[in-house]
Design goal:
The protein is 14% helix and 56% strand. By secondary structure, the protein is mostly beta strands.
C-alpha cells in the first residue's frame, strides 16, 4: 500500500475509534463533575493556569452522498484557561476552556465517473473560531513530573472565512460538466449555509509539570453534529459535518495556586 494512502487509512481508522469512545469519555467526565457538584469528598484545589496552544488540524467533511477526500491539513492555535478544582482519590479534576482559531475544510481526491484518477484539484478552506469547554481528568504527578490525562466535552464554533482553491481547468464529460462520480459538482458553487457549528470533543494527553509551567502534548478528536449545508430532502446533501483530528502542544503558566 502507498505510504500516503496508508496514512489516510490509519487516521480515518483512528477517527472512527474516537467516535465510539467520545461519548464514553464525556459520560465519565459528566458523572465525575456531577458528583463533585453534589458533594465535594476529595481534596479541594483552586489552581488557575493560562497559556497558549498550537498544532495541526486534520479534517474531513462527512458528506452524504459521499465525496472522496484526502485529509485537509491546516493549523490551529489559541488561548487556554484551566481551573483545577479537586483531587478525587488519585484523580485530578479540572475544567478547561479554550478559544481557538482553526482552519477546517476538505480536500477532494478527484476521480472520473469511471473511477480513474484525474489531474483536477479542489480544496476548500473554512476558518473557524472554536470554543471547547472540557472536563479534564488527570493521573500522575501534580507538581513535578508527568501526568496522563483525558479531556472531553462540548464545543461550539463559528465560520469566519471561506476560500476555495482549484485547478485552472476541469476535466469535462460529454455533457460539458466536470467529470465526477454521480455527477456531483454542486459543492463547487455552494456557499456555506450554516456557519454556526457544534459537536463534542475528546482526547488524550501527557503533561510535564515543571517549575516554569506546564507543557502538554495532546491528541484530540472532534465529532461535528451540525452540517455546513442544508440537509432537507430538497437539498443536495443529507449530511455535511466536520470530523477533525487534532495534534497540539500547549503551555500553561500558573496565575493562582
Amino acid at each position: 500500500m502507498h505510504l500516503g494512502a496508508f496514512y489516510v487509512f490509519l487516521t480515518i481508522f483512528a477517527a472512527k475509534i474516537m467516535q465510539r469512545i467520545l461519548l464514553f469519555l464525556c459520560s465519565c467526565a459528566l458523572q465525575c463533575f456531577t458528583c463533585m457538584a453534589l458533594a465535594q469528598v476529595g481534596e479541594p484545589r483552586s489552581d488557575l493556569a493560562i497559556g497558549g496552544s498550537g498544532g495541526v488540524a486534520l479534517n474531513r467533511i462527512d458528506f452524504d452522498p459521499s465525496i472522496k477526500q484526502t485529509l485537509h491539513t491546516a493549523p490551529t492555535f489559541g488561548v487556554t484557561l484551566r481551573y483545577a478544582c479537586e483531587k478525587y482519590f488519585s484523580t485530578y479534576c479540572a475544567l478547561q476552556a479554550e478559544v481557538n482559531f482553526t482552519r477546517l475544510g476538505w480536500t477532494e481526491e478527484i476521480q472520473s465517473s469511471a473511477g480513474v484518477p484525474l489531474p483536477d484539484t479542489y480544496s476548500r478552506d473554512l476558518d473557524y473560531i472554536q470554543v471547547p469547554l472540557l472536563a479534564r481528568l488527570g493521573w500522575g504527578r501534580e507538581r513535578r513530573g508527568v501526568m496522563f490525562y483525558i479531556v472531553a466535552g462540548p464545543q461550539i464554533g463559528f465560520c469566519i472565512g471561506d476560500h476555495a482553491r482549484q485547478s485552472s481547468t476541469w476535466t469535462l464529460n460529454g455533457e460539458g460538466i466536470p467529470d465526477r462520480p454521480n455527477s456531483l459538482v454542486a459543492q463547487y458553487s455552494m456557499d456555506i449555509e450554516k456557519k454556526f457549528d457544534y459537536g463534542i470533543a475528546g482526547g488524550l494527553g501527557l503533561e510535564w509539570n515543571t517549575s516554569i509551567g506546564h507543557f502538554m502534548l495532546e491528541g484530540r478528536y472532534y465529532f461535528g453534529l451540525a452540517d455546513i449545508y442544508g440537509n432537507a430532502k430538497k437539498d443536495v446533501f443529507g449530511r455535511s459535518a466536520h470530523g477533525t483530528i487534532f495534534a497540539k502542544l500547549t503551555y500553561l503558566t500558573d496565575i493562582l495556586k
